[in-house]
Amino acid sequence: MVTAGRPGAYVCGIDAAMDLIGGKWKVLILWALNERPCRFGELRRELPGVTEKVLASHLREMESDGLVHREAYDEVPPRVEYSLTPRGVSLNEALEPLGAWGRANVLGGPPPAGRAPEDDQAPLVAGAG
């Protein structure tokens, strides 16, 4: 799938990926939809502070980019659910290490599984210090 990106060539893969998830809300939308499919109002409650206009715009962009699937049900009242596409799931998987880094280095949580916590006071060589 080709994504309609910004004008000009991307410098690297990270540049291209960041174009898809740029801004405060897109990664949080991905995170919320990773849990389960959601209706618009549910997403709005999951993301305090997002406006209806921004959420609707981001969902349209993410659908266009192939990250989000929009399912409209033929019911009264109308019901629309948003879910992740396989491409969106793979992007979420790629973002997991970044989330682990943020928990360990910004939020002060435990380090990622399999990693020892860093200690600035510990000697780099056993027996030194």
From TrEMBL:
Q: Does the keyword Ligase apply?
A: no
Domain called HTH hxlR-type: residue spans: 12-110
Is Ribosomal protein there in the keyword field? no
Q: Which Pfam families has this protein been placed in?
A: HxlR
InterPro entries attached to this UniProt entry: ArsR-like_HTH, HTH_HxlR, WH-like_DNA-bd_sf, WH_DNA-bd_sf
The record's keywords, sorted A to Z, are: DNA-binding, Transcription, Transcription regulation
GO MF term (any one): DNA binding
Q: Which domain of life is it from?
A: Bacteria
From the UniProt entry, list the residue stretches annotated as the region Disordered.
106-129
Q: What is this protein called?
A: Helix-turn-helix transcriptional regulator
